[in-house]
Amino acid sequence: KGKAKGQKGKKITLKIAKNSIRISFDGGRRLDLSKMGITTFPKCILKLADVDELDLSRNMLKKIPSSIQKFQKLRWLDLHSNQLEELPEAIGTLQNLFYLNICNNKLTTRNLPEELNLLKNLRILNLGLNCLDSIPTSLGALKELKEIGLFDNTLTTIPNSVKKLPKLKKLNVKRNPFPDSTKQEEHADSIKRIETLYLVQEKDLCCSCLKMCQNERDKLNKLKKVTPSPSKKPSFPLLLTPNSSAKDNQEEWRLR
């Protein structure tokens, strides 16, 4: 066991890869090769290119080959916690990709392929914990993005094209060397906060559900309007002698 644990550069065979396929919660096929001690991209998995998800995280990969373009069905790609210094241009061909995690690698701005802006269906992009000193304005072309992780880099500014993405809900830029703290707050709070989130429209609710929702909303509004007087001490009429009731209960349990 000790020898296997310390082994580096584990060779992945097609059999190992096939045995690593799992069914994800939504019924997709996920090839999970995370934490396998892989140092080079296993060519054998190209025979399994019809999977929906590919997890190569927590390995020692330094490069992803152009053959990644064979995974045309891929919707979910996790490459975090490797030693990647660059990404292939071919990553832009994965048009079905909605999740891309390349956090905790050695990526620089220069080695981010411009083809990233071709991932038109991308919803979540994690670039945190890398060596990025700037963010390409071209990422503003990813109109479907909802979450972006840019934390723990060397960024001093965030392009407006990225901050103003129409569907962006979460932008994490913590621990970057912005010029001053107020600037950092501006970047962190650049996303408009939603006070009320409507998951369904009122016209889609039945009469009883709509009435119930309206009543709950009215109660909430009334609570917001109530401002308790700070000088008035709280009154507890039912707890004038709280210890007496506790004592009676204890006596009753003892008798049992």
Provide a short characterization of the protein structure.
The chain has helices at 2-6, 14-19, 160-163, 181-188, 207-225, 242-255, and strands at 21-23, 29-32, 53-55, 76-78, 99-101, 124-126, 147-149, 170-172. With 256 residues, it is α/β, with parallel strands linked by helices.
What does this structure look like?
With 256 residues, the chain is of the alpha/beta class. It has a domain at 30-172: Ribonuclease Inhibitor (Leucine-rich repeat, LRR (right-handed beta-alpha superhelix)). The protein is built from 6 helices and 8 strands; from the N terminus they run H-H-E-E-E-E-E-E-E-H-E-H-H-H. Strand 7, helix 3 and strand 8 form a beta-alpha-beta unit. The model is unreliable at 1-7, 192-200 and 235-256 (pLDDT under 50).
What is the strand content?
A: 5-15%
Our measurement of the CA-to-CA distance between the termini, rounded to an integer number of angstroms, reads 58 Å
CATH topology of the domain at 30-172: Leucine-rich repeat, LRR (right-handed beta-alpha superhelix)
Order of helices and strands: HHEEEEEEEHEHHH
- Main sheet? 8 strands, mixed
Assembly level = single chain
**What structural class do the secondary elements suggest?**
alpha/beta
Report the principal-axis shape.
Answer: globular
CATH class of the domain at 30-172 equals Alpha Beta
Mean pLDDT: 82
- The number of distinct helices, counting runs of at least 4 residues, comes to 6
User: How many extended strands?
Assistant: 8
Region (Disordered): 224-256
Keywords: Leucine-rich repeat, Repeat
Domain Disease resistance R13L4/SHOC-2-like LRR: 68-201
Pfam families: LRR_14 (PF23598)
